[in-house]
Amino acid sequence: MRVANLLGRSVLVSGAKALDIENASGGRFSSEPQAAYERWAELLEWAATFDVVEHPGSVTFDEASLFAPVPRPRQVFAVGLNYASHASESKLDVPENPLVFTKFPSSLTGPVTEVRLTGDRVDWEAELVVVIGAGGRDIPRAAGWDAVAGLTVGQDISDRTVQNWGNPPQFNLGKSGQGFSPIGPAIVSLDELTRSHDRNSLRITCHVVDTPGAERRSLQDGNTADLMFPIPDLVARLSAIVELYPGDLIFTGTPAGVGLGRDPQEFLVAGQTLITEIEGLGSLTQTIVS
Length: 290
What we know:
Elements: E1 2-6, E2 9-14, E3 17-20, H1 21-24, H2 40-47, E4 59-60, E5 66-67, E6 76-80, H3 84-89, E7 99-102, E8 108-109, E9 112-116, E10 122-123, E11 126-132, E12 148-155, E13 158-159, H4 160-163, E14 181-189, H5 190-194, E15 203-209, E16 217-223, H6 231-239, E17 249-251, E18 273-278, E19 282-289
Parallel strand pairs: 6-17, 8-14, 9-19
Antiparallel strand pairs: 1-2, 1-5, 1-14, 2-3, 3-4, 6-7, 10-13, 11-12, 11-17, 12-14, 15-16, 15-18, 18-19
C-alpha cells in the first residue's frame, strides 16, 4: 500500500493512478491525510482487497499535485551523524547515542516544490524517513519494526549559518525554514516494500541539476544498511524517553556528500534542481529559488 496526499485528500496510489480513500470506502475512512495513521492496520487490510489501478474510481494524477503525505505530525524527530561517513566528513566523533533534534512541522512540504534560499549556506541532506504507526512507550528493539507504518523519502535541508548560531550550536531553526522538510511522494507500507526490496538495505541518492537541461551531478550515494542506529534501535531508544504517536516522523540521518563536508564547501544556489531518491520509495524534486 502507498498512501499519499492529493490536494489535501488521502489517497491510495499505484503508478500514475490515485484512488480517493474516503470515496472508495464509502466513508469508512476519512479524507484527512493525517487520520490514516491512526487506523493504519485497518486501512492496510481494506486496501489489500482490490487493485488501485483497476478500480473504477481511480484517476490519473501528477506528482506536482501531491502535498506532504504526513502533513501535521505531533512530533518530528531527526537524527544527526547516523552514518559514520557523514560524521567523518563533518570532522566530528561518531556518537555513542543517537544525536536527536527536531524539524518543526511547519517546514514539511510535498515531493515536488520550490525551496526559497534563506542565505548563502543552505545545504542538502538526503534521508530515509520513518512514519510511526502503532506508537507507544518502551517499545523493545525486537518489536521496533512493528511500530512502523511505513517509509518515505525526505530531505533535511539545512541553513548552516542559522544552525551554527551560538556556541554550542543549535540545530532546530536552521533545519526548519519554509519548505526545508520535503517528504513523499507517498508512505510505502512495509509489506509493499518488502515484496521487492530489503527494508534494511535501501540505496539513497541525491543529485543536482545545476542549470535547466544540464546533466544530473551526483552529490550523495549511500545505503541505509550503513545506519549506525538502525530503525528498530531508534524506535526503542526514542520510545524509552518519549511516547511515540501514530504519524510521528523520524528523519534517520544522511550519508556522506553534503555541501558542508566538501573541499571546497558547496551550497545550494538559485536555479538548481535537487533530486532525492530511495529505491522502492520514489523521489523528491526541489527547485531552488532566491
